[in-house]
Amino acid sequence: xxxxxxxxxxxxxxxxxxxxxxxxxxxxxxxxxxxxxxxxxxxxxxxxxxxxxxxxxxxxxxxxxxxxxxxxxxxxxxxxxxxxxxxxxxxxxxxxxxxxxxxxxxxxxxxxxxxxxxxxxxxxxxxxxxxxxxxxxxxxxxxxxxxxxxxxxxxxxxxxxxxxxxxxxxxxxxxxxxxxxxxxxxxxxxxxxxxxxxxxxxxxxxxxxxxxxxxxxxxxxxxxxxxxxxxxxxxxxxxxxxxxxxxxxxxxxxxxxxxxxxxxxxxxxxxxxxxxxxxxxxxxxxxxxxxxxxxxxxxxxxxxxxxxxxxxxxxxxxxxxxxxxxxxxxxxxxxxxxxxxxxxxxxxxxxxxxxxxxxxxxxxxxxxxxxxxxxxxxxxxxxxxxxxxxxxxxxxxxxxxxxxxxxxxxxxxxxxxxxxxxxxxxxxxxxxxxxx
Length: 436
Prior knowledge:
alpha/beta, Arc Repressor Mutant, subunit A, three-stranded antiparallel beta sheet, globular
């Protein structure tokens, strides 16, 4: 665990505890030595000393530590942090907007330092919406743009200027339920509930993220099963196929040939692919435009199959997928998650069904959306895509040696989910036994 991650958890635990908490308990929660904890506490103390506008300080009482707020800044900012004022912004967009409002002027790289993830596409959408604007450039190599909130933002939130914002620390307003790592969320909940430390001592180590890889051909039911598993396990689902579909759709809209590596390589140099993950589902953006509702057509499916066979495109998407899986528990589905993208995934499944059954499912999906396609055409496109995916040079579709085969023909979703949950539980138990 990096210092940045450890600092974020330390601050979350102190915030959740409220009252002073023993140093040794903090060390146990973070799974760090007392020496490293002292270093983290010193860093946190210095951060608050330097950031005088945070309104926070680290209070040390004997062998206990706690977060304290200056009396004059005890009232939290209602204008910006009141949920009723969030309008219809997503959580990610709201976080970016808050960072800009409190830090203006700010560059995109500085936003990324605060949030820990690339926020370019969100910034672009906020600019299009009129809440954020770029005024001038920082006079350094590369001349990054300086971002400010707009007059529209000030009007929407009832402010004359950002100087009207009370001094608060943005991290202190993260809700404990928003922590995507379920182990961290569990610990925060335990502290907040003031559970007896003796009851939780046996299971307080910070665990590696639970990463589940689901592979298989198109139409086998991967996404349906992945979404249901994610719901049952309270972790997030990443539809990796949507990334390739979105890139394939951009190529089509630009009049490019999705199988032309030179054209696609040039396209990717000027492409910003981003996904927003939430329990409600994934939204896929290309250059700040939401492609989510436009990528499920047969034409886009073939484009996705062609573009995903290109090494330059695979590397582009795989890097993003690995970054997502490294920092949180996730379920990813695709063609080569367990064999190429995440060969060390906690659990791997290979989902399959006959071409006829898969084509029928896709045809019914199309009909439900009002697309009057022909079943025979869908079947032939399915067979062609199977051939393309299983015969491509880079990471072809195939079952990983340690993946569990799941045939979905004639089986209910409930039955399949129970089987997969049993496999996951057994795998986790086996891993825990190996580490004891």
